[in-house]
Write a structure and sequence with these properties.
Elements (H helix, E strand, L loop, with lengths): L1 E4 L9 E7 L6 E2 L4 E7 L2 E6 L4 E6 L6 E3 L3 E6 L38 H10 L17 H13 L8 H16 L2 E9 L9 H15 L5 E4 L4 E4 L5 E3 L1 E3 L2 E3 L2 E2 L7 H17 L12 E4 L19 E5 L3 E7 L2 E15 L5 H15 L4
Parallel strand pairs: 12-16, 16-17
Antiparallel strand pairs: 1-8, 2-4, 2-7, 3-6, 4-5, 6-8, 9-19, 10-11, 12-15, 13-14, 17-19, 18-19
Helix pairs in contact: 1-2, 4-6
């Protein structure tokens, strides 16, 4: 009997959700045959068998969350050794406990409350971290807990986050814990754009121009090492909204590709995201991100920088505005822009110069 554990599916992943089993107990499988589909970091990945043999036991059912290196399948009557498939082995962790960052929850100071109030919270199923305290020195009272319990009961049943939404929640929590965000905003006058102009393609070009002018934003900040890595090429994350959640596939080397090639790559990414077939590797390695949230609404936003990236450029809703030119009011088409950056790695002057360069490119007629 041999036990196959959930392998390391990519840098930084800690868990995966079982989507569907492709085998059952008693089935005979051969090496590299798909065993199970799992979802993690917004991609569905097939995990292949590391060896030939008969399935003795499956750990978990569709919808279950499995930790990396947890048991996945027991094999009976194994016929051959490990085939060498990449995901079939688990590298031993090299990072010491002292070097490993603490979980986000461990960094959150507990709420002030007496033992009696804590006991009441446990009995009513209330998380004290969500209670608005009204007692002395910011402590929670029995009334605070009871009000929180009533609010929870009125909110309906708990809906566990799964798949894409779960991954998004984890990434946002990590970003909130690690990044020191700052945001600058401005507006580009796009009256000179021809009618058929594609805003997304213009944003891509503007980011390239800005990264050339201020390469410090096309970088990763490595918190544990207290340093940054500047990138020679631009891996542009494109935020895409779906019913399942937010996907951010990466358009590679955008500074060295012509517009037609970039358009084909962008359309291919949209199709893969819609079909949920985007490869896991295409969701990794972004050096900077752009979000065209204005296609849904809104003008300016304090966006979220996902580490190790240092910046994200957001475009708001295109609209007409009245501006003064030559002492008289005129109406111009405006594109609001928001640049959020990690202030640990990027200075305010660098950010504003980046944004000014992007605006100068966007205001060109072609």
């Amino acid at each position: 009997m041999t036990t196959f554990k959930l392998p390391d599916l990519g840098e930084g992943l800690q868990e995966a959700e079982i989507v569907a089993w492709h085998v059952g107990v008693g089935d005979h499988v051969v090496a590299d045959q798909p065993l199970v589909s799992v979802e993690t970091e917004k991609a569905v990945v097939e995990v292949p068998a590391p060896q030939s043999g008969r399935i003795a036991k499956l750990y978990g059912a569709p919808g279950d969350i499995v930790q990396i290196a947890a048991p996945l399948v027991d094999f009976d009557e194994a016929e051959q050794a490990d085939s060498g498939t990449v995901v079939g082995t688990i590298p031993e962790a090299q990072e010491s406990a002292a070097e490993r960052p603490a979980p986000v929850a461990a960094r959150v100071k507990g709420a002030k409350a007496t033992p009696a109030v804590r006991a009441l919270a446990r009995r009513l199923g209330v998380d004290l971290a969500l209670v608005s305290p009204s007692g002395p020195d910011g402590s929670a009272t029995t009334g605070d807990v009871e009000r929180a319990a009533a609010a929870v009961s009125q909110a309906g049943e708990l809906e566990p986050l799964r798949g894409v939404r779960r991954a998004m929640a984890q990434n946002m929590a990590r970003a909130h814990a690690e990044v020191v965000p700052a945001t600058v905003t401005d507006v580009a006058n796009i009256d000179a754009w021809p009618p058929e102009t594609d805003p997304t393609m213009r944003l891509i070009r503007a980011v390239v121009a800005a990264c050339v002018a201020e390469p410090s934003l096309n970088a990763w900040y490595l918190g544990l090492d207290k340093g940054r890595k500047l990138h020679e090429t631009i891996g542009l994350g494109i935020a895409m909204d779906t019913e399942d959640g937010l996907f951010v596939p990466v358009l590679r080397d955008v500074g060295n590709r012509d517009p037609a090639d970039l358009r084909r790559g962008l359309e291919a990414m949209k199709a893969d995201v819609k079909a949920r077939t985007v490869p896991l590797e295409e969701l990794r390695g972004a050096t900077i991100t752009v979000s065209n949230f204005g296609m849904f609404g809104g003008q300016h936003a304090a966006l979220v920088v996902v580490p190790p990236q240092c910046a994200i450029l957001g475009a708001g809703r295109i609209h007409e505005r009245v501006v003064a030119e030559g002492g008289r009011p005129v109406v111009r088409r405006a594109l609001p822009l928001s640049l959020t950056f990690d202030h640990r790695a990027v200075m305010g002057g660098e950010a504003t110069r980046f944004l000014a360069t992007a605006i100068a490119d966007l205001e060109r007629s072609a």
